[in-house]
Write a structure and sequence with these properties.
The complex is a heterotrimer of chains A (544), B (340) and C (227). Chain B has helices spanning 14-47, 64-92, 199-208, 215-225, 263-271, 294-306; strands at residues 100-107, 110-115, 120-122, 124-128, 132-139, 144-148, 153-157, 163-168, 173-179, 192-197, 250-252, 258-260. Chain B is α+β, with helices and mostly antiparallel strands and 340 residues long. Among the domains of chain B are: 100-208, Cupredoxins -  blue copper proteins (Immunoglobulin-like); 215-331, Cytochrome Bc1 Complex, Chain D, domain 2, CATH 1.10.760. In chain B, strand 1 and strand 2 form a beta hairpin. Helix content of chain C is 75%, strand content 0%. In chain C, helix 3 packs across helix 6 (150-186). Classes of the chains: A mainly alpha (544), B alpha+beta (340), C mainly alpha (227). Chains A and B meet through helix 3, helix 6, helix 9, helix 10 and helix 11 of A and helix 1, helix 2, strand 7 and strand 9 of B.
């Protein structure tokens, strides 16, 4: 018989992590990884809509070729803050800090992460960093672009560079501590029988992501520190007028910021592996390959940063090395797409909302990844660098990929997190709206980019207008698609049907406990005796 | 007239067609694989849709053969992209030897263009069709980028050093010039036009402008004014390396390194002379940091370059008429200044 | 699981310390240790950015850097190096004392380490003041005797202050850690069964020492061949 789908209607929740203790202090001083996950959920949702608001203004401005909605300086601040907020305060924490925090201990059969207080500290550090950035937003904003290239950011810009730099520096430690926590937890706290190759792929993805967290983030931290020092103390590190080298900044910046994009996509890939197996009711095709793939993406991802600098004045030979390595890093990602597709082969495919997001992910990530090959190709990169082609590429990956993965994961684990079911019809509708809106927004930007429309342009030549109008129309649809889940998810917390322990009939330890789980996750510590995703057996045995 | 909807840029340089060919290859292969995945996902989602809540498909572990196949084949295809792209990139970074020299100084928020014969332009660049043009570029403030979509040409323009790029226009016309590296408030206004002209029209344009001194001649004057010739001279009184014939040659440094004397080397030697000392010379050259502007540096560079040219007159392609600027004489050691 | 409320016996001290998410003291110790090692790896990457900048600028301005380095006080730098190495010795002795249950020795060695660390910072303060008085702090007040080298020398001093400043900050944090350990030691919190905080703080302190071992030759010794 398949795992529990025909349970009787679940009762009102017994004591669980949500109602075990009451009061604001029990939340703000919690050590429970599940509550900390919800603290993050609230914070990043706020920043998602703030970043989205900036995007709305950008797209409104770009309806007309002239810069007539906002002044040039304001526009420059809008796209900068859109990037800073979305990357540092939404995308990078999103899946790891919300779903990773919530699920990793449960997936490995532990009561919590290795360092619960450090986990809470991570959130507070994030909040302090966010506060600095918000302060910068309110006091005039920053206009350097999220990439902070020198010497503009250190010498010329007269915006809130220092405050934003401090904010990013501080928030970086939130990432570092989360990554450290995950690595130690996965190494030392797996339940008996939970060997490395019995871990769910979601855990593998977060392990790989955590490697990047701990190795990459310190480099952006010291880089931002050097920018701060140069701007405040006029120590010439990157400014040629002071004897420095602006290309050094670019190397240091991209050494983190390229792996950062893998921080954003690897967790989403982990979500997709969980969703595709559950809603195909089949084990993953090529489990070990999938695990090795995320590790190799993390490692190779550290070797390709120079592909952001092909026209920077970097040597031709350096360009060639970074180009060929960039092709290598594409292969494990491609393999993952093939494996997910093969998992569906002869499966039992359900069209529940998480699976719809997974379909969208596979399609959009494929397009985004393929256009990455265009960018790795030196001869083409020269033409499309710093144009809307790049913008389209990374939005396909980060929005079409990572955010679809995030929303799919939120929907998939919503019953576990909240103990409630969301309205399926509305959820499917929203997924469709997001997919359509997304493509309408960003596909025209590939065309605009090859035509030559540069990025970060407040005003543009009139022949680019029609494509820009299409893109803005798509953006309004996409925005609507994001607002709808906000509404029904919040609605479901109060009015949704109670969720059973395992509404999807999924394998995995997190489904073996109640929805929502008790504070210590399991009534009794579980022991793992099976490989993951074993749907084809008569019964999945969990001895607990 | 309704809004236009261009979907593909013009090809106006010899490189453009080559870039587009590679782009179409990428499009074809990517389109194929994207369509394949989409098709498979759709087909599987429909064919294997769940028909009953209790159905349990048989599991499949995986297949090493398939994994190898769909790793190796994409890798091979990816490498084809790499080699073609690298070949193109190499060509983009190797200007032909007889290219027309043009100097570009970017500053917030305008492009200052200087032709070798002294013609100056702001936010515009006139070039002849059918002749390679090599741009030597620098910035006076922050990083900019010289981008001409119709030529498929783009290069960052940096403060503190020179970057170079080249193109050969193949079709007369007027083409967008954009700054493609965010540089502050009026970044999107730092735009202009590149005018590619038939050679005859280009000649007419060249001689039609206000007669001005060639860059090399201006540089020669600076060379004298700053007394560079007191040390850089071909006779035994020289305290610095002889600059005649230097440009483009191999130089041996005192710390063992060797390099080719290019524009960047000349510029660096003027601003931070102690960074690279030529073998056999002492580190006694003073720095001219703050004493010469970026444009004057370009003039000095042009002058030093002229000391290596076989014929003294850089300019438009030969056999198209009288050149409009005076030839530059080899600098004979000037008389010693009184009191020195 | 052992009752957390018992007092006195060392075994109880260990179990009193067992945090609820861990299954055993051994697991807790493993986790703490691995956590500190990973943190130190992040510190290597953190300092790494500055070391990279140093490498590149020195490669481009070898002579000027060497000359600038002659302005460092090699006597003070050497003393500081010896001071830090000794402090690593006393720290190792402190860890050993904790592991063998010798509370008084532990406290003594912790204090010795703190004194040596304080001495290091004091000598550094003397050096900094000296440099500033000689107009060697980068910025508008910078003045260098050889104008042709001034740019590169200012870069050298930018890196010197940035790197040693960051290092000194880490020393201060280390002193804070040692103070906490001192307080805990005096309250009898450590035993042969449980002294993980001392061990992992030891790791941190040794790391800060090793960073200095790299900084010293790169900043103080590269000009000696010119003398």
């Amino acid at each position: 018989m398949s795992a529990a789908v025909h349970e009787p209607e679940p009762q009102e929740p017994r004591v669980n992590y949500l109602n075990a203790t009451y009061g604001i202090r029990s939340w703000l001083l919690t050590r429970d990884h599940k509550r900390i996950a919800l603290l993050y959920l609230a914070s990043i949702t706020f920043f998602f809509f703030l970043g989205g608001f900036f995007a709305l203004l950008i797209r409104l401005e770009l309806l007309t070729p002239q810069g007539d909605l906002v002044q040039a300086e304001t526009y420059n601040k809008l796209f900068t803050m859109h990037g800073v907020v979305m990357i540092f305060f939404f995308l990078i924490p999103s899946i790891p800090a919300v779903l990773g925090n919530f699920l990793i201990p449960m997936m490995i059969g532990a009561k919590d992460l290795a360092f619960p207080r450090l986990n809470l500290l991570s959130w507070y550090i994030y909040i302090v960093g966010a506060f600095f950035t918000l302060w910068a937003v309110v006091h005039g904003g920053v206009d350097t672009g999220w990439t902070f290239y020198t010497p503009y950011s250190t010498a010329t810009s007269n915006s809130q560079v220092i405050t934003t730099a401090v904010g990013i520096f501080i928030t970086g430690f939130s990432s570092i501590l989360t990554g450290l926590n995950f690595i130690v937890t996965i190494h030392t706290m797996r339940a008996p029988g939970m060997t490395w190759f019995r871990l769910p792929l979601f855990v593998w993805s977060h392990y790989a992501t955590s490697l990047i967290f701990v190795l990459g983030t310190p480099v952006i931290a010291v880089t931002v520190l050097m920018v701060f020092v140069e701007r405040v103390l006029h120590l010439g590190l990157f400014d040629p007028a002071l004897g420095g080298d602006p290309i050094l900044f670019q190397h240091l910046f991209w050494f983190y910021s390229h792996p950062a994009v893998y921080i954003m996509i690897l967790p989403a890939m982990g979500v997709i592996s969980e969703v595709v197996t559950t809603f195909s009711r089949k084990n993953i095709f090529g489990y070990r390959i999938m695990a090795y793939a995320v590790i190799s993406i993390a490692v190779l991802g550290f070797l390709v940063w120079g592909h952001h600098m092909f026209v920077s004045g970097q040597s031709v030979y350096a360009g060639m090395i970074f180009s060929i390595l960039s092709f290598f890093v594409a292969i494990p990602s491609a393999v993952k797409v093939f494996n997910w597709t093969a998992t569906m082969y002869k499966g039992s495919i359900s069209y529940r909302t998480p699976m719809l997001y997974a379909f969208g992910f596979i399609g959009l990530f494929t397009i985004g990844g393929l256009t990455g090959l265009f960018l790795a190709t030196l001869g083409v990169n020269v033409h499309v660098h710093d144009t809307y082609f790049i913008i389209a590429h990374f939005h396909y990956i980060m929005v079409g990929g990572a955010i679809m993965g995030y929303l799919g994961g939120i929907h998939y684990w919503w019953p576990k997190i909240s103990g409630k079911l969301y309205p399926e019809a509305w959820a499917r509708f929203a997924a469709l709206v997001v997919f359509i809106g997304f493509n309408l927004t960003f596909f025209p930007q590939f065309i605009l980019g090859y035509l030559g429309m540069p990025r970060r342009y407040h005003a543009y030549p009139p022949e680019f207008q029609v494509l820009n109008v299409m893109s803005t129309a798509g953006a309004s649809i996409l925005g609507a698609g994001y607002i709808i889940p906000m509404i029904y998810l919040v609605w479901s917390m109060r009015y949704g049907r109670n969720a059973p322990a395992n509404p999807w009939g999924s394998t995995g330890l997190e489904w073996k406990t109640t929805s929502p789980p008790p504070t210590d996750n399991f009534a009794e510590p579980p022991v793992m005796t099976e490989d993951p995703y074993l749907y084809s057996r008569e019964e999945v045995e969990i001895v607990g | 007239m309704g809004p236009t909807l261009p979907l593909f840029p013009e090809q106006a340089s010899t490189m453009a067609g080559r870039v587009d060919a590679l782009y179409f290859y990428l499009l074809a292969v990517s389109g194929f694989f994207a369509a394949l995945i989409a098709l498979l996902v759709i087909v599987f989602a429909i064919k294997y849709r769940r028909r009953s809540e209790t159905e349990l498909p048989r599991g499949v572990e995986g297949s090493l053969k398939l994994e190898v196949a769909w790793s190796v084949i994409p890798l091979a295809i990816a490498l084809s992209f790499f080699f073609w792209g690298a070949k193109l990139f190499f060509a983009m970074n190797r200007p032909p030897n007889d290219a027309l020299e043009v100097y570009v100084v970017g500053k917030q928020w305008m492009w200052k263009v200087q032709h070798a014969d002294g013609q100056r332009e702001i936010n515009e660049l006139h070039v002849p069709v059918g002749r390679a043009v090599r741009l030597t570029m620098t910035s006076e403030d922050v990083i900019h980028d010289f981008f001409v979509p119709a030529f498929r040409m783009k290069k960052d323009v940096l403060p503190g050093r020179y970057t170079t790029a080249w193109f050969e226009a193949s079709k007369p016309g007027r083409y967008h010039l954009f700054c493609a590296q965010y540089c502050g408030t009026k970044h999107s206004a730092m735009i202009g036009w590149v005018h590619a002209m038939e050679p005859a029209d280009y000649q007419a344009w060249l001689s039609g402008g206000v007669a001005s001194e060639s860059l090399a001649a201006a540089g020669a004057k600076l060379f004298q004014r700053h007394a560079c010739n007191t040390c850089h001279r071909p006779d035994s009184l020289a305290r610095g390396p002889n600059l005649e014939g230097l440009f483009g040659k191999m130089v041996q440094l005192s710390d063992g390194r060797t390099l080719i004397a290019d524009e960047s080397y000349i510029r660096e030697s003027i601003l931070t002379p102690n960074a690279k000392i030529v073998m056999g010379f002492q580190p006694i050259m003073p720095t001219f940091q703050g004493l010469v502007s970026e444009e004057e540096l370009l003039q000095l560079v042009a002058y030093v370059k002229s000391l290596s040219k076989p014929s003294p007159a850089p300019g438009p392609a030969p056999a198209t008429g009288v050149s409009s600027m005076p030839p530059v004489h080899r600098a004979a050691p000037p008389p010693k200044e009184k009191g020195k | 699981m052992a009752d957390a409320a018992t007092t006195g016996a060392p075994g109880a001290a260990a179990s009193r310390r067992l945090q609820h998410q861990f299954e055993s003291p051994a697991q807790q110790k493993d986790a703490a240790s691995l956590g500190m090692w990973i943190f130190l790896v992040t510190e290597i990457l953190f300092f790494g950015g500055l070391f990279l900048a140093y490498t590149i600028y020195r490669w481009e301005n070898a002579r000027s850097f060497a000359h600038a380095s002659l302005h460092m006080d090699i006597a003070l730098g050497t003393i500081n190096t010896v001071v830090l190495i000794c402090s690593s010795l006393t720290m190792a002795m402190a860890v050993h004392s904790a592991a063998t249950g010798k509370k008084r020795l532990l406290i003594g060695f912790l204090i010795a380490t703190m004194l040596l660390g304080g001495a290091f910072l004091g000598i550094k303060a003397v050096e900094y003041t000296d440099h500033i008085r000689h107009h060697l702090f980068p910025g508008p007040g910078f003045h260098y005797t050889v104008p042709a080298d001034a740019r590169a020398a200012e870069m050298f001093f930018s890196l010197y202050f940035a790197m040693t400043g960051l290092h000194a900050l880490h020393m201060v944090v280390g002193l804070g850690l040692l103070t906490t350990l001192l307080v805990m030691a005096r309250r009898g919190r450590f035993s042969p069964e449980y002294h993980t905080p001392v061990e992992i703080s030891g790791l941190y302190w040794h790391f800060v020492d090793i960073v200095w071992i790299f900084l010293f030759p790169l900043l103080y010794l590269i000009g000696r061949h010119l003398k």
